[in-house]
Amino acid sequence: MTSPRTGLASTIARYPVAAYVVIAFAASWALTFLVAVSVFFGLIALFGPALAAVIVTRADGSFSELRARITGWRRPIGWYAIAFGIPFAVAALARVALMVTGSSPSGLGTISAIELVIFVLVIGEEIGWRGFLQPRLRTRMGLASAGLATGVVWTLWHLPIYLAPELGLVAFLQFAFWVIPLAVAMGVVAEGARFSVIVATVMHGAANIATPILLPGVERSTWLILTGAIYWLVAVGLVLAARSRLAPDALPG
Hints:
74% of the residues lie in helices and 0% in strands. The protein is globular and about 60 Å long. It is mainly α and 253 residues long. The chain has twelve helices and no strands. It has a domain at 75-250. The protein has helices at 4-14, 16-32, 39-45, 48-60, 63-71, 77-100, 113-121, 123-138, 143-157, 169-192, 197-214, 220-243.
């Protein structure tokens, strides 16, 4: 008779993407609802996607590929420059746009210690999003479709945060408008860097800090919509530039 553990592992291996989403959401959401108790739970919640990726790859025998992506930091320095530079370029363009309308912020902003900590800890997300989900979707989807699908999942993963009364549906939709094209752009960069989780983490972290540094004091809804629109243009440009160079049947391990 098959043991319950083996049976569960077999089910996970049969439906890896669905299992990943369920585990990532369940682990992170359970902790997110405890943030009111301590912000520490929110920091741990960042590792829900990583936990899900490890469980699924252990079940289907592909953990060595995930481990290679996590430890694969030796990539051309250009990929790190692109990963760090794109979010700051987007924020800079948004600042110029605000300057043209006469509402440009003055000076540069600062980032807090917790934002620096989160810059590093988003590796917990990236082990899942660009280390597992994006490359797994690329085996069955095109570059843009995989990025869009990853972006939708990534957006929905944040949903509990937007259940707070001070945020709500409108804020959630504005966030979706920003994060989905960012996911497409990150998917292109991550794939170009052979799905290095470290490169993806650099871009994720840069996207989080570029706005408070270059757009200090700008209302959240304004910068989400403005930088989101720019990210859509960047995403389209990156996909078009990469389409002839990258193919699903040539994915690195």
